[in-house]
Specification:
The protein has 391 residues and is an alpha+beta fold. It has eleven helices and 17 strands. The longest helix has 12 residues.
């Protein structure tokens, strides 16, 4: 095992390969507060990439209802339990969120999936994981819209469940794709070296010619995004719509998103972050966008703005110790933050740079061409009394 630095957990960790970085890293920010689970992203991806025989169970993009939903079922609860069993009582964070670029969320002192593998699995295993059963892949929308009810009372909602900052009766939608991690577990586990990160954009792909369908990638990925196709005998996964990315065009899931929850772009390492890069701004400067389960150790490159109304303990387990700071800044956004949030879903091009004026947010592509211009405040037009629609 090599030693690599993972800034999301604030320390060095074990990984099977030495550290290497792409020329730029593909990334997403998802604003959970805006997601309505319309499944437009899900169906856009399905109708583009996984509509053929043998792909019926494949949902590279999906939206699941938390806390009970998941695809495959209970994927996060299962890997969290494995990690806890491997390192009982020690899966904890120390320190506090800070301006330290090497540990902005503090330090995770527990074991990652690359460090706990020998505690529960044979010495030959590179990654701690599990292989979902066929039944767990059957129901992509299981428990949709099922809320947490009154604690200790079956089938009853809390009558005082609708007050901020935290609702007593709650659920939220979690949109998911492959995280195209900086330290992919699928890549680490593949005995054929069929999985690779593209050096030009960091997108993680499976070489179909090298893959032999051993399913080690499915077992290792804690997010369960590689999927086995029985008709071909190989695994497949989200390809980040790389033909579109090569044309500087946003992915199908972002193009179809009704709620405009998604902002696509490029994320930099903390020490190279640019304030005028919209993804860097949200992740490294405003720190409102957080990685999904950073304690797994994969350094995912899809980030989430956490929902305001959910109990903080649940969110901290899912997104790490930066939750309170992220929600506080999202609730009272600076003008720059408001402007960047307005750019989400505003154009078909990938935005590499932005600026915010007194009235507008402006987005530019990698060549410096203006691709979008969005007003910060919508114009209000009052209908004259003679045209009012009343009797």
């Amino acid at each position: 095992m090599a030693k690599v630095h993972n800034w999301q957990i604030g320390r060095e960790m074990n990984y099977p390969y030495t550290q290497a970085f792409p020329r730029r890293q593909f990334a997403f920010v998802f604003n959970i507060n805006r997601c309505i689970a319309c499944q437009s992203c899900t169906m856009a991806c399905k109708s583009t990439w996984t509509f053929s025989k043998g792909q019926e169970h494949m949902w590279w993009a999906n939206v699941e209802t938390k806390p009970y939903g998941g695809y495959p079922q209970f994927w996060d609860a299962k890997i969290l339990n494995l990690l806890e069993n491997a390192n009982p009582g020690n899966q904890q964070w120390s320190g506090k969120p800070s301006t330290d670029k090497k540990k902005p969320y503090g330090q995770f002192d527990g074991k990652t999936i690359f460090e706990a593998q020998n505690m529960l699995t044979p010495d030959s295993a590179r990654v701690l994981g599990y292989l979902p059963t066929d039944e767990e892949w059957n129901l992509p929308n299981i428990y949709e819209d099922n809320p947490v009810g009154k604690k200790g009372v079956r089938n009853e909602l809390d009558k005082e469940g609708t007050e901020l900052p935290v609702h007593k009766t709650w659920f939220f939608y979690l949109a998911r794709i492959c995280n195209h991690c900086s330290y992919p577990a699928c890549l680490a586990a593949c005995p054929r070296k069929a999985i690779y990160k593209r050096p030009e954009d960091g997108i993680v792909l499976i070489d179909q010619n090298r893959c032999r369908g051993y399913q080690e990638c499915m077992k290792a990925c804690p997010y369960k995004k590689p999927m086995y196709r029985a008709t071909t005998g190989v695994s497949e996964k989200c390809i980040a719509c790389y033909p579109r990315v090569e044309e500087n065009t946003v992915t199908r899931c972002i193009a179809a998103c009704v709620g405009k929850i998604r902002l696509q772009g490029w994320v930099s390492p903390p020490e190279k972050a640019r304030r005028d890069n919209p993804i860097d701004f949200l992740v490294h400067f405003e720190k409102v966008a957080l990685p999904l389960y950073p304690q797994f150790g994969t350094e995912p490159n899809v980030y989430y703005i956490p929902p305001r109304w959910v109990p903080r303990a649940y969110l901290k387990q899912m997104f790490g110790p930066g939750v309170e700071r992220a929600i506080a800044r999202y609730k009272k956004p600076s003008r720059a933050l408001l402007g960047v949030l307005m750019l989400a879903g505003s154009c078909r091009e990938i935005i590499s740079r932005y600026e915010v004026t007194a009235q507008e947010a402006i987005g530019y592509d990698a060549d410096g061409k203006e691709v979008t211009r969005v007003p910060l405040e919508e114009e209000v037009i009052v209908r004259p009394e003679k045209h009012l629609n009343t009797t």
